[in-house]
Write a structure and sequence with these properties.
Length: about 110
Amino acid sequence: MAIGGQQLSELKKILGHYVKNNKREGLNAVRDLLGQLKKSGAIKEMGCEEKCATCAWGKPGAPSWDGQCLLWDLWESLEDLEPNAMPSKDIRRKAAALSKALESAPAPEARRK
């Protein structure tokens, strides 16, 4: 498994635990992994073509000017969140949506049916 695939597998696992248990440590780990994926460009290597409207990781009905990727939408919400700050309900909702998308599609190029 390539490094991006390993990171993605770890992200799915940790994100799933966070969604179930709402533990802040899990959310911090999710933020760290998303940051690694963003900085390394691993998502591009995994097949992201920035076609969010048809991607299984895309936000349904998101306008083109909005962040359309569930992965990066969560990252942007977590990026500036203080390590001990209480996450908003919006972050929990975004985490749950991304977790569901990652479970249903193993890679960004997997299309919705």
